[in-house]
Amino acid sequence: MESFGQNLRRGTNQSGGRIYNERLVLSIVRHQDGLPKAEIAKLTGLSAQTISVIMQQLEADYLIIKGEPQRGKVGQPRVPFSLNPDGAFSIGLKIGRHRSELALMDFVGRIRETKQISYPYPVTTDLINFVRETMPQLVASLPRELRSRLVGIGIATPFELWSWGHEVGAPKDIMDAWIDFDIKQEVSDASKLPAYLQNDGTAACAAELTFGNPQQHNNYLYIYIGYFIGGGIVLNGSVFEGPSGNAGALGPMPIRNQDNDHSKSRQLLHNTSKISLQRLIAESNPERVNIIWDDNSDWSELGEILTLWIDKLSTDLACAIVTAISVIDFPAIVLDGDMPSSVRQQIIQAVEQKLKKIDQQGLSPVYLSEGTLGKDARVLGGASLPVLANFTRDRDVAFGVKPHSH
User: Fold this and answer.
1) What is the mean pLDDT of residues 289-306?
2) In the prediction, which pLDDT does 167 show?
3) Is the pLDDT of residue 6 over 60?
4) What total of structural domains would you count in the chain?
5) Least packed by Cβ within 10 Å: which of 184, 247, 265, 392?
């Protein structure tokens, strides 16, 4: 397979200040599309001359494009600048417990092509074969002149994947193979691309910050409901991944049982993940279980089962949110998940009602909002890692931390 990204791997002959300023400009243009140079200079605090030099370089690198001049009543016409969708491309690999996905993403966060593989449980050799066999197809979907603009592959995976073998019914030897498996290196070798690795919840959080977040929250707790529940933390406009890469991994948070025995507790994930909904469905009608794993399904036919799940989920989630804002005064909670938007909205409304019943004296008010990426959040999170590493100020999250091993 040919090598990629050669045209974009520049910077060795540039000062650190210039690279930082270019990344700063790209970040501003990404979040405030169609800005003229004068406005960019104002937002960055850089001189008009410096901004002109930077914009010329970014244009020469095909990373930004000029819009049509906009004439006002006085002065020179304003020329808006936007990111060039074809400026750079990246690959996202989402490793799941029952399905993995590869996606080709352009510079503005649009998925151009996807490939998937389903399985009863993840097997290391099958995953690498999937990457090796699928990469040429994704590359071939790009015009030949754009293939050199592939900058890397980002991997969004649950850390300690081997710990959940009993949940997916996998043989112990199959799951143990993940303990010493160097995912980052193996995927890099199979794809012929630089690889970046991050926890799937943190990666999804990075994707929401980079490609979503329409309300421009700078500090928030991100919650993602998938097979299990997870999330991430955004502080001062950057993803905070923590020393082990697990910041915001909400699943293990203890929740006290609502009974007379206050010594007992359970983990948050017990009632707040899709696996808990699957159990409820299986108890009453096993034939309907696949509804929640079908990307295009309508969950409304689940009726009372869905209502019961949302009631249990929202009770525990409200407790978890109050616990979280007691530690860090998040002004916002962004809730997303692998489910229809209508269900996410029902969950938000239920959590808001449950929050009203919890004593929050001494805590700052918190605002709940819906995430924007849904089922694509994790694979976009993977694909965002090479973009973060090469083109933004928020680089640290892209390099991640090696998953814990026993």
Assistant:
1) 88
2) 64
3) no
4) 3
5) 265
- Same-domain pairing of 341 and 232: yes
Q: Is residue 19 part of a domain?
A: yes
Structural domain span for residue 269:
213-372
Q: ∠ CA(384), CA(199), CA(385), 5° rounding?
A: 15
In this predicted structure, what is the pLDDT of residue 274?
92
Residues 99 and 201 in one domain: yes
> How is 261-314 classified by DSSP, letter by letter?
-TT-EEETHHHHSHHHHHHHHHHH-GGGGGGGG-TT--GGGGTHHHHHHHHHHH
Here the tokens at position 197 are: 């690795």
DSSP secondary structure string for all residues of 81-132: EEE-TTS-EEEEEEE-SSEEEEEEE-TTS-EEEEEEEE-SS--HHHHHHHHH
Contact between residue 81 and residue 30 where contact means Cβ atoms under 8 Å apart: no
**Alpha-carbon distance 128 to 3, whole Å?**
18
Domain assignment present for residue 406? The answer is no
- Residue 404 in any domain: the answer is no
**What is the spatial distance between Cα 216 and Cα 237, in angstroms, rounded to a whole number?**
9
Residue 249 has pLDDT above 90, yes or no: no
Instruction: Return the CATH number at 103.
Output: 3.30.420.40
- Identify whether residues 355 and 255 lie together within a single domain: yes
The pLDDT tens digits for 45-91 are 989 999 999 999 999 999 999 888 777 655 567 889 999 999 999 99
Domain presence at residue 350: yes
Q: For 322, how many CA atoms within 13 A lie in the half-sphere containing its CB?
A: 17
pLDDT digits (tens, 9 = 90+) for 331-362: 999 999 999 999 999 999 999 999 999 999 99
Query: Cα(110)–Cα(2) distance, rounded to whole angstroms?
Result: 24
pLDDT in tens, 127-162: 999 999 999 999 999 999 999 999 999 999 987 777
Residues 237 and 340 in one domain: yes
